[in-house]
Design brief:
Length: 428
Amino acid sequence: MSRMFPLVLVAVLLTSSGHIRAAQAPFPTKFSPAIAARADVKLALTYIDRRFDAQVEEWIRLTEIPGTSGHEQKRADYVKAELRKLDLAPETDEVGNVWAVRKGTGGGPTVVFAAHMDTVHPLDTPLKVRREDNGTLHAPGIFDNTASIASQLQTMRALREAKIETKGDIIFLFTVQEEVGLKGMYHWAEKHPGLIDMLVGVDGALGPVNYGALGIYWSRMKFSGDGAHTLQSRDQPNTVRAAAECITDIYTVPLPPANDPIPAIYNVGGMLSGGNVVNAIPQEVTFTVDLRTVDAEMLQKLDAAIVSKCEAAGKAHRVKFVREWIQKSEAGGRPDQLTAQRAHPLVQTAIDVLRFLDVPMPAGREAIPTGSTDANVGVVLKIPAISIGRSRGGGGHTLQEWAHIDSAKTGAQQLVLLAVSLAEPSVK
């Protein structure tokens, strides 16, 4: 999922105000070069390198399997078949999540890696992958998020090939409906309370580590009434006037200044509909609202103010107003409320792995206190959680989506090092 506008703004502003201290504070880490120097880990990293062509071929295959949110079954079937080849027992639940447990030797934390299987693109979207001479792949969903599915599967193969043992269990989870409110991840976490010690969302571009959660409220505002023919419409209840007044009034709801360290944003009318004839008041008019901020209290206040404007407009024009939820992803909190999360070894471990692999990251932006992935669920539930990228790319959620091929090799090697470091290597 790529909803990055507030992420970049938060990162830049908070860096200037001193809330991000990645380069200044000795945060604890579970990674050391000694882990990468272990014979078994070196073997796993070599496997990723040696078998990278196969990873890319699988990446392409996965992308060409339709996986619209709520319709991930074919991708799930593919994943389950590959897990069985690894002598694992894949599990599924009633919403369609798939996972497998790589058992540890005991005495270590349970680490969950989550990659979502769904895409925003409709089922009839052409998905044929085009490979360019400049080392890129092009197709809807190639970056978000089949790159992550392929990386997780290849990481599991590398760990098996190298016979790596960890103290803690590693759960590789493939979720559904991430793009429509993180529904699969929320369901899985609620069904397994107390199980997750650390959660790693695998989603997005290689680079900074996200450890917060951007709150996202998507609403459909619906005004309904009896309607009326134009000739009988004078002084009648009017859904259009109610919706128009509401939209105008919403834009009077104040937001923090553009340079505020805790930004918030809303977009009104991204989807607007009503009526099917020229000569009548529509019986129903709807429009959408997209509201975002990392501040949970601000999110609630802005949402209440927006709904209040709609209720007032409905009452003024004598029509019924109903708010319907499209997506409701809660905010993880302001940066000053996430100091414990930043100090958890999970965050710095991921940063140190990226540094070890020479992945470039802007100075002062190694750790960003927001995010919009399955990891948000962990942040909201107070579970140590981060999201990490696994390739470079762009054009997410468009037909022009693309991904850089070779960067996915680094992404998979990152997963190997992170899995071993977090779950703690067994002594041999």
